[in-house]
Amino acid sequence: MKVIEIDNLKKTYSESEVEVHAVNGVTLDIEEGEFTAIVGPSGSGKTTLLNMIGGLDIPTSGEVIIGGSNMNHLNGSELTDFRKNNIGFVFQAYNLIPVLTAKENTEFVMKLQGKSKVECEKRSKELLESVGLGERINARPNKMSGGQQQRVAVARALASKPKFVLADEPTANLDSKSTETLLDIMEKLNKEENITFVFSTHDARVVKKARRVITLEDGKILSDVRKNGGE
Amino acid sequence: MIASISWKNVWRNKTRSAVVIVAVTLGTVAGVFVAGLMNGWVAQRINATIYTEMGHLKIQNPNFLVNEETQYSIKPIKDLTAYLDNAEEVDAYSKRSKIMAVAATARANTGIMLKGINVENEKQVSDVYTKLMPNAGTFFESKSRFPQVVISNKTAEMLRIKNYRISEKVMDSLKILEIPQDGMAKLESIANKRFITKKKFETAINETWTKSEIESYAPVLIKTAAYFQPRAKITFSFTRTNGEIGYQTFQVCGVFKTANTMFDQMSAFVKNEDLYAVAGLNANQFHEISIVTKSTDFKDIKAFQSKLSKAFPEQNFMTWKELAPDAGMLSDFMQIYYYIIMGIIFFALAFGIINTMLMAILERIKELGMLMAIGMKKLQVFAMIMLETVFLTLTGSFIGMLIGGVLISITSKTGLNFSSVEEGFEAIGWSAIVYPNIELSFFFGVTILVIIVAILSSIIPARKALKLKPIEALRIE
């Protein structure tokens, strides 16, 4: 089943009378349960593509259809709701709320969704245990390592039961051990719970784990390779 | 959830929040205490107006208001007093005969309103009898073969009945006050001399003491050395009801002092029976009736006034607010003034609050972008920032109200003494010793005011946050 359908997607920036085509006619589909890495050199359009898939940026032309909903047809408030209920985000700099504990950070989106306290607590606990932080649910971000914070970010991204998770350079700030742990957790979640992950990355370790690798260059797809079972 | 995160955000940068909280606390303490002080003053002024000077209602012959001649007494007095005796609204009333007189001693004279009273009835409507000065007699409790008069401290000064002498007793009292030996020795030159006015006594002190001794000890010396001539007599002359000039000598029985110099200067009390004969009045001629009602609610007083006016249309009935419009105005509008004071303080504080919140927002742009990216709506972001501002401001104001309340509570018992400017205050009817107080409802009002100020202060920072686009905010390092 297609989770993401992208048709001839373009994003053009005008910089001092020069047009920059950050994404230039990308067409691709992502199926449910895929573990996809979007790679390419700096300026190739990875992050811009991810932002448009996540409804954070508006395409100049083309369409992004998620679960049958055309993102072009949604206004600002509808897009916010759409993101809340359908997309999980993992950011490069973790972006946890510093005044909240791991558990509270994980519960945050569920509370925005209006879930009950009992449901929020149960799911956040399960998710934090699944990312190996069952013992640290009451720790605040400043008391956790970068790897632990990014794992909380993964738990937060999954809390709303999204259709897929977008992760923008999730391992860029992590050491190799933390990267390994994080990738193992995401891979496990992908395989066991069929969660769709889409990464933008430079990291060869992520590329190695990914079962589909889309290479971008100058805003266009250079290659789209599906591997059999990742490694 | 929004409230919870807002509260936690307040404590994100503890130092910065503490600065704002301390500023709001100090502003609130100042505002609450000033309001308490003003309220105490006003309450004392109104209390004095009602329970010392006027009563809740006053009845007079309308002609007496225009021309204070003895012939214009209240009519029909018997029907009116019978009505008052049966009126359930009345707590107490006192009938007074009033005659304008010239009071004279061998040294001075002054115009004064002689008020003929029934002592027991008067005590029920006016607390003048509790305002007697120390060692200055009684309120008609001593016996004398002369008719007696109770005059004010001010009148005693004007008629030179109040004198000053540094007696041995005064010297002993001064020793307790630890006046330096040198200063005490200098006083020997003016000891046991009688000074008939305060001015003359002050001149003598000025010639005796150094400037620093005067500044330190003169007020207490003047107070200690003051005394009233025992058994002093005052002759009052006035126009009798038949138009002839009448005279009567009264012996000073007591000396009172209220916080209103104007009232003091114009009032001297004598017993009704001592005034009738000499003034040519009969036992049923009274010029005013002062009433204290059971209800202190002004609406009830107005209703009773209206009822009396209908029953006795030929007499004039005036409420205390009509008799003392200054006190009435204070009573009606002071609450608004207190809120204006608080409003000005919070208006000034609002700039600091806005600045702090703007800093807090600018620091968190990336985080706000993330919140909007993961599904927080702009209205929720707005509410979060607004609540954060409200919590920050309310915390300071609650602490401020608590401290202000405690300060008012303490000073309401001890009083605040403004004796250095006593004369100025009392000249306009204000007490020099103030007992601050404030009603609980004022704190509720301040809380609402704080919330309004906080909401208004949050608009600029919140608008800044609302203008953010998640994608742009997330890019900021």
Write structural notes for this entry.
The complex is a heterodimer of chains A (231) and B (477). In chain A, 35% of the residues lie in helices and 30% in strands. By secondary structure, chain A is α/β, with parallel strands linked by helices. Chain A has a domain at 2-95 and 162-226: Rossmann fold (3-Layer(aba) Sandwich), CATH 3.40.50. A six-stranded mixed β-sheet of chain A has the order 6-7-8-3-9-10, with helices on both faces. A four-stranded antiparallel β-sheet of chain A has the order 2-1-4-5. In chain A, helix 3 crosses helix 4. The longest helix of chain A is centred in the last third of the chain and has 18 residues, at 176-193. With 477 residues, chain B is of the alpha+beta class. Chain B contains 20 helices and 15 strands. The longest helix of chain B is centred in the first third of the chain and has 41 residues, at 14-54. Chain B starts with a helix and ends with a helix. Chain A binds chain B through residues 51, 54, 56-57, 76-77, 80-81, 83-85, 89, 91, 93, 95, 97-100, 108-109, 111-113, 156, 160, and chain B through 1, 5, 8-9, 11-12, 366-367, 370-378, 380, 470-471, 474.
Rounded to the nearest angstrom, the distance between the terminal CA atoms of chain A is 24 Å
Which term fits the overall shape of chain A? globular
Approximate strand percentage of chain A: 25-35%
Assign a percent range to the helix content of chain B.
Answer: 55-70%
CATH homologous superfamily placement of the domain at 2-95 and 162-226 in chain A:
P-loop containing nucleotide triphosphate hydrolases
**Shape of chain B from CA axes?**
elongated
CATH class of the domain at 2-95 and 162-226 in chain A: Alpha Beta
Mean pLDDT metric of chain B: 90
Q: Uncertain spans of chain B, ≥5 residues at pLDDT below 50? A: none
